[in-house]
Amino acid sequence: MNEILEILFGLGGKLAAHVVLAAAAIALGIAVALPLAVWASRNAAVSRIALGFASLVQTIPALALLALFFPILLSLRAVFGEGLPTLGFLPALLALALYALLPILRNAVTAREQMDAGVLEAADGVGMTGWQKLRLVEAPLAAPYIMAGIRTAAVWTIGAATLSTTIGQPSLGDPIFAGLQTQNWALVLAGCIASAGLAMVADSLLGLVERGFAQRKRWLVWGGLGVAVAGVLLSAWTLRPAERGADTIVIGTKSFSEQYILARLIGSQLEDAGFAVDYRDGLGSAVVHEAVTTGAIDIAIDYTGTLWTNQLKRDDNPGREEMYRALSEWERETSGTLVLGRLGFENAYAFAMRQDRADELGLRTMDDLARASSRLTIGGDVEFFRRPEWFAVRDAYGFDFARQRNFTATFMYDALTGGEADVISAYTSDGRIAADRLVVLEDTRGAFPSYDAILLVAPDQAGNTQLVSALEPLIGAIDVDAMREANFAVDRLEDKKSPKQAAADLAERIGL
Amino acid sequence: MPGTNSPFLAIDQVTRSFDRTVAVDRVSLDILENQFVALVGASGSGKSTLLKTINRLVEPDAGTIRFDGEDIRQGEPHALRRRMGYVFQGIGLFPHMDVAQNIGIGPKLAGAPIGSGRVAELLELVDLGSDYAARMPHELSGGQRQRIGVARALAGDPHLLLMDEPFGALDPVTRDALGKRVRELHDRLGLTSLMVTHDMAEALLLADRILVMEAGRIVADCTPGQLLAGEGGDTAQALVAVPRDQARALAGMAP
What we know:
The structure holds two protein chains of two kinds.
Chain A: H1 2-9, H2 12-42, H3 44-59, H4 62-80, H5 89-114, H6 117-125, H7 130-160, H8 173-182, H9 185-214, H10 218-239, E1 249-254, H11 257-272, E2 277-283, H12 285-293, E3 299-303, H13 304-310, H14 320-334, E4 338-346, E5 349-354, H15 355-361, H16 366-372, E6 377-380, H17 388-397, E7 403-406, H18 409-417, E8 423-427, H19 431-435, E9 438-440, E10 452-457, H20 465-471, H21 480-491, H22 499-509
Helix pairs in contact in A: 1-9, 2-3, 2-5, 2-7, 2-10, 3-5, 4-5, 5-7, 6-7, 7-9, 8-9, 9-10, 11-22, 21-22
Chain B: E1 9-18, E2 21-31, E3 36-41, H1 47-54, E4 62-67, E5 70-71, H2 77-81, E6 84-88, H3 99-109, H4 116-125, H5 142-154, E7 160-164, H6 172-189, E8 192-197, H7 200-206, E9 209-214, E10 217-222, H8 224-228, H9 233-253
Parallel strand pairs in B: 3-8, 3-9, 6-7, 7-8
Antiparallel strand pairs in B: 1-2, 1-4, 4-5, 9-10
Helix pairs in contact in B: 3-5
C-alpha cells in the first residue's frame, strides 16, 4: 500500500500531461461537435451522416484508433511538411477528440429533436432571427443535455488517454503499461487509481456545471467550470519547464522489460557523454520502427528477425550474417536510418520445456519434439501461431501438436510450470528460462531465423559523431547471459528491480 | 374600391401546397382596420396555413400579401413578425424564462426592452396580478399560460393580432372568459384581429366578420347576423347548425 502511495506521489508529471491531453481532446471534441450539431438540427442528411460517422468511430477500438493516426499523419506530411509530428501529443489529441465526438453530438442532436415544437414556433413568432433563436432558446434548453454528453465524453477520454502511451505521449498509461510488462502490480494499480480518480473528479465538476444549467444556477456553472479550467491551466503550467530542448535525444522502447532496461543503459551512456535524454516508453511494436526511421524518436532497439519479416516482408532465412548485412543496407537505402551494430545477444524464439518433463519424454532436440508432438500441448504468445516463424518450424520439423494454446507472454511461463502446456515458444534472452530451469530444445535444422538485437539511429542523427561514439561501446558488449540476468531482475516477483537499477547493474557487469 | 383607403391587410391570389395537397388555393381577401375576423373551417381546410402566410411562418407558392400598404416580402421575416402579435394553441412560453422575460422578449429583440411597470400593465390586461412577473411557466395553469401568451403578443404594441386556435386547449370556463377578454382588448386597444378556430359558436360570439374555409378556398364571407339568418351556403350553414341545435336542445331541457 505504501509502495502504491509512493508511486502515486511520483506521478505528478504524468498526471499533468494526462490532464492537458484529455482537456485539449474534449475541448476539440466540443468545438467540432457543437457546430456540427447545429448544422445537423437544420439538415436531416447532415444529422444522419454525422451521427453515423461518430458511431462508426466509436466501434474502432481506442488502441487501434490511436495507432491509425500514425500512418495518417505520416501521409499528411506530404501536405504540411516534415515538421508535422507523427507521434505523441498530436495523434493522441486527434484520436481522443474523435472519440469524444459521439456523446456530445448525440446528446446535442437528441436534445434538439426532443425540444417542444411550440416553443420553437413561438421563437419564430416573436420575431427572433435564426441566430437569436439559437442563442436565446435552443442553446439554453439543450445545455443540460449537452453537458451530460460532455461528462460522458470526459470520462471516456480520460480512460482512453491511458492508451496514448503506445504512441509515445506521456500519460497515466505509462505506469500501467510499464507495470503490466514487468509484472509490477503496484505500478499498474497506481496508474489505474490515478486515472480513475481523475475521471471521477472531472465527472463531478462537470456534473456541477450540468446541474447549474438544468437548475439555472449560474454560480454552479461558473464554479464547476472555474475549478476545472484552473486544474487544466495548473497542469499546463507545471509541464512548461519539462519541455525538452531541441538537442534532447529521445529513446523509444517497445513494451517489455528488455527494451526498458536497454533504453536506460543507452540513456545513462548518453548522459555521461553530455546529452539530455528523454524516453518514449511502451510504444507499439510496429510504431517503433516507423518512429525511428521518420525521426520521431532518435534511437530504438529492434531485432533482425522481426524487421526481416515485418518490414522487408521476407519469409526466407538467409542465415544470421547475411540477414544482418541485408537489413542494414535496406535501412540505409530506404530511409537513411543507421543500423549502428548488434548488441551481442539474440532475443529469438526457442521451444522450452520443464527439465523433468523433457527427461521423462527423453527430448533433447526439436526433432525429438516432432516425434512426440501428437501427444503434447504447445503454448505460444498471442501472435506466435500466426507468425511466419511458426509456419517455418512447423513445416521444417513436421510438428503435429495435440493442442495449441495462446497465452500472454507473462502467463506463458506460468502455464509451463503449472503443466497447462508441455512446451512453449520462449524468448531466448528471457531470464525466466534460467530461473525456471527450463530446457531449450536444440534447433538442429536452423529453422528459426536469428533475432540479433540491433541499435537503430534515426536518419537525422546518423551523422552525429558524438552520439555515435557514445553508443559504440555498447556494440557487441551484451551477451545473452547478462541480458537474461537483467531481464529476470525486473521480471521476477520477489526483490524486483526497476529497469534503471537493472541497467546500472548490467553496465557494471559488462564493464562500462 | 378606388377612392377609399387601401385595406389594412390585402391578400391577393395566395396559394400554398404541401406535397400534392393544395392547402390554400388562390385566396384573395381584404381586411379593414379594427375588424375582428374569424376564420372557421374543419381540420385540413387550410385556415391555419392561410394565417401563417401573413407572418411568414409559411411562405406562399404564389400570390402577394400587403400589410399596411406594404408587400410583406420586402423586409426580413423576423422584422415583420415583431410588428404582429401571434397567439397559438401550443402557447410556447419559453420554459427557461420567467413570466416577465417571456412577456418582454419581443420588445427586447427589437432593441427597446420594457420595464416592470409595463409588464405589470400587460399582466393586468389579461387579468393577472403583477406578482406573476417572477414566476416560471411550469408553475402556471394552462389558462394562466395562455393569458401570458396573449400579454406577450401585445407587448410590442402591434396593430395586427394573429391567433391560431388560441383557446383550443383550455377548459370551457377559461376559454369563455379569455375569449371575452381578448374581444375587450381588441376594442380597447384598437386592434385588427384575425382568429382561426374550428368552433363556430366562438366565432359567432366574438367576431365581426366570419370567413368559412373549405378545401383551401373561402366559401363564405358573412357577418354573424347573416350566418344566423341562413346565408353563406351549405358548408357555412352546416357549421352554424351545430351550436344552434345544441342551443335548442338545451332550451328544450330547461325546466
